[in-house]
Amino acid sequence: MTHPTVEWQGSLETGVVAMIDQTLLPGRLKILRCREVKQVWEALRTLRVRGAPAIGIAAAFGLVLAVRGSRARGVETFLSEVDRQAKYLAGARPTAVNLFWALDRMRKTARQHVSEPLPKLKAALLREAVTIQEEDLATSLRMAEHGFTLLRGVSTVLTHCNTGGLATARHGTALSIVYRSQELKRPLKVYATETRPLLQGARLTAWELLEAGIDVTLICDSAAASVMREGRVDCVIVGADRIAANGDTANKIGTYPLSVLAKEHGIPFYIVAPLSSFDPELESGEEIPIEERAGEEILRPFGKLIAPPNVKTYNPAFDVTPAKFITAIVTERGVLHPPYTRSIQRSFKDRGEA
Known about the structure:
Blueprint: E1 6-9, E2 16-20, E3 31-34, H1 37-45, H2 52-67, H3 75-90, H4 97-112, H5 118-148, E4 156-159, H6 174-183, E5 189-193, H7 200-211, E6 216-219, H8 224-229, E7 235-238, E8 242-244, E9 249-252, H9 255-264, E10 269-272, E11 278-279, H10 296-299, E12 318-321, E13 328-331, E14 334-336, H11 340-350
Parallel strand pairs: 4-5, 4-7, 5-6, 7-10, 8-11, 10-13
Antiparallel strand pairs: 1-2, 2-3, 8-9, 9-12, 13-14
């Protein structure tokens, strides 16, 4: 990525949250500069910024915007403001757990600095948000290294939605492996699904891979089965917005049928996601809240009516892939294998969070 997906620019007092407006790609590259928390909320809700890690980073910076001008006279009043604004931002998207993870980190940071003067407490919040961004950069690189070990003998991968630099601080989750392969002179060919109804695969993944000089072929979502049957795909790699304790994984709608197709055709199906996308509090995917978006996204994609305006719509933004269809899960701490209940629990123990 030539531009960071989302970052803080300037001082605490006058800085802005700068992000690529992904709704305008690939036709136009525009940097959106948010000066108020409501602008960040709107960017989250309308998918100007999207992708689980990027959502978390944007929310952390958004919280700084929300409270930097606070004139609270006491610490408890300030902490109440932090909690209220965190709840407001959390309401923008219900499925991506990185959003809640990042906001919880920010709330904890505020409480860890309650003994400091208010200006220093606010500065600590900005430092934590920057740390979340920097950690994501490092996490993407580690996932790329671990994921690369799974692709020996692989020449072509299929991916769904967008899991590259646009979905993270810069490098990506699933696509970080593709970029790493390119760096190591083992270039991969990529089949990218269009990803209806908002075409993140067509608009974002295809654009991003072409910019990086990677061989990418765009296909309709409904062509995936034929592409697999014809032997064109060696494995499927996708990201995740939330992973339950048993390995069930929520990702962009259309991921679940890809996992079933991969199983049927004997093709490995890999999830690539940071530990911040795991929600060990949820026993299974049945407990993952699934965001349902407006039917207008189906009826009028990009402003053009393509169906009878009075037809009923059902527009879930995500689906859940059962763990039994997942070959392995790549994280920054290594590759997890079934049984996932055990390997996920072990990863959090290693991180000291069990």
